[in-house]
Amino acid sequence: MNEGLLFPPLPHRIESRAPAAARDISLQQFVRHATVTKDTGRVDACRAAFGERYDNLRRHAGAIKSHTLDHLDEYLERFEAAATRAGATVHWAADAASANRICLDIAKRINAKVCVKSKSMATEETRLLPELEAAGVKTIETDLGEFIVQLDGDAPSHIVTPMIHKNRASVARAFVRDLGAPYTEDPGELTMIARAHMRKLFERADLGISGGNFLIAETGSLVICTNEGNADLTVSLPPVHVALVGIEKLIPAMEHLPIFLKLLARSATAQPLTIYTTCVTGPARSAGQGSSADVDGPRELHIVLLDNGRSELLRAPTRELLRCIRCGACLNACPVYKAVGGGHAYGSVYSGPIGATITPHLKGLHNYPDLATASSLCGACFHACPVHIDLPAQLIALREEAARRHLNPAPERVTMKLWRWIMQSPARYRIASGLARFVLSRLDGVDIPLPGPLGAWTSCRTTPRPGAIDFRAWWNERQRTKANCGRPASDRGRA
Ligand code: SF4
Predict the structure, then answer these.
(1) Helix, coil or strand: residue 451
(2) 104: domain CATH number?
(3) N or C: which end of the chain has fewer CB within 10 A?
(4) Do the domain assignments include residue 82?
């Protein structure tokens, strides 16, 4: 994988990558087409299924997650006890290094040579795959999108659809180059090529690794949702399975699961449900009194509960961020995510509005000082979020914090100070707006590239022409005319 895309040298500024992506027309088209299709599909699917009840449902889902997070310590212990009773081994990982160490120790103990892995943001976050490869464990991504990204030495660009930035032709080229397959752009044929290749690896694998969409505290179950069935094979074929899951994935009981399943699939891909929803409670059971042995399933099931900064997010102002179910809807709805050509510009495993909010908290605001500015604050992410996370408010709080710590650029600070000084006095505002009108009317719409940091503004914007009459004059005239019960002269001729 091109590690530098998700783990750039720090500090990382999105403005260092965004302009190149914004100029890449094909990239823009792939990302725009895929996100717009998913976003409109989500709106239609939610409207058709829930109608007016949708807002209540997502508030309800958010409340269940909030309740779980308010009592996270209790639910984690309850989960550990139930999973252990079911025969699984629960591990606790405070950070990425300890999570990877647990997985590598298991791989070494069973002398693993081939590992099949299903899609997992937590393993991307801990950079597990390169560590497995360095330890001599050949690891294959089995999610089709992740597999293609792996073949290309690329990095995922979306939390649900990792190859959102690629088209069929690039998949066809990768299969010819790495699998010796005949060139085809037919999606069905491409899928069958990948399937034939992966089946052999599934049969040889001695270790399976996955993430998890939900953990059920009541039963100690791991729930994985996929559309390809690769997670089912990853869990059931290799003799040992390790699931690396963030501690925020807990929900209290099985009765809560349907609410999240309904929202997750519709928000992610506009489906009523993901094609496969796998619920794993303990490893494969051997025959007991009155029950036969399970025909498949791992001999050993390990569940690694990953903290890696999440406990810090439990503080009140950021706790709601842990409600995220990683559906990707906020990415699809976000105009900035589209404009910067997908997730790579964010320089982080998590991209889009949720990435812009959690990354500075998990990795330090000083390391991602401008990520929270990657939003127009239009509110589309908030309306798309199935667990009602107020992402714009979180972004504003991060911007305030960056300004308070002087992490925003010096010219921005000076400009904002000047702006505040002008806005504090009507006289100063009148003089400044009059001056601006005078300068703009002299420029008369001619584009003049400004020097230095202001050049970024003028490089893609046309100098505005001031209106025929300024706002104050228009307003005063309007008030005068109203008083005389007539229509203002400047309004005449308007529809
Ligand atoms: S923040 Fe909300 S919309 Fe975005 S990925 Fe998380 S759950 Fe989905």
Answers:
(1) coil
(2) 3.40.50.10420
(3) C
(4) yes
For residue 240, what is the DSSP state? E
pLDDT of 495 reads 46
Kindly give the distance from the C-alpha atom of residue 325 to the centroid of ligand 1, in angstroms, as a whole number: 6
Task: Tell how far the Cα of 219 is from the centroid of ligand 1, in angstroms.
Answer: 25
Residues 129 and 249 reside in one and the same domain? yes
Query: 211 and 79: one domain?
Result: yes
pLDDT at 489: 59
User: Does 267 fall in a domain?
Assistant: yes
- The C-alpha atoms of residue 24 and residue 341 are separated, in whole angstroms, by 8
The one-letter amino acid at 384: A
Supply the range of the domain harboring residue 460: 410-491
Query: Which is nearest to 282 in space by CA: 89, 93, 116?
Result: 89
Is the pLDDT assigned to residue 493 strictly greater than 60? no
Q: Does 384 sit in the ligand 1 pocket, CB within 6 Å?
A: yes
Nearest to 127 by CA among 89, 160, 157, 101: 101
In-domain check, residue 390: no
Spatial strand order of the sheet with 89-93 comes to 89-93, 300-306, 240-246, 207-210, 114-117, 138-141
How far CA 211 is from CA of 26, 128, 239, 242, in Å, comes to: 32, 12, 17, 8
> Is the same domain home to 304 and 438?
no
324 lines ligand 1 (CB under 6 A): yes
pLDDT in tens, 385-419: 999 999 999 999 999 999 999 999 898 899 999 99
pLDDT at 155 over 50: yes
Asked whether 356 lines ligand 1 (CB < 6 A), one says: no
Region of 48 please: left (phi>0), alpha (psi -120 to 50) or beta. alpha
The strand pairing partners of 116, in sequence order, are 140, 208
* Average pLDDT over every residue of 121-140: 96
264 lines ligand 1 (CB under 6 A): no
Is residue 198, in this structure, part of any structural domain at all?
Answer: yes
- Measure 322 CA to ligand 1 centroid, in angstroms: 10
Number of domains in the chain: 2
pLDDT tens digits, one per residue of 234-257? 999 999 999 999 999 999 999 999
300 and 427 share a domain? no
What's the mean pLDDT when you consider all of the chain?
A: 93
Q: Are residues 140 and 278 in the same domain?
A: yes
Q: Residues with Cβ < 8 Å from 91, sequence gap 6 or more? A: 102, 302, 303, 304, 305
pLDDT band at 314 (very low <50, low <70, confident <90, very high): very high
Q: Is 251 helix (H, G, I), strand (E, B) or coil?
A: strand
Integer-rounded Cα Rg, in Å, for the chain is: 27
Among candidate residues 308, 341, 370, the one where a domain is terminated: 308
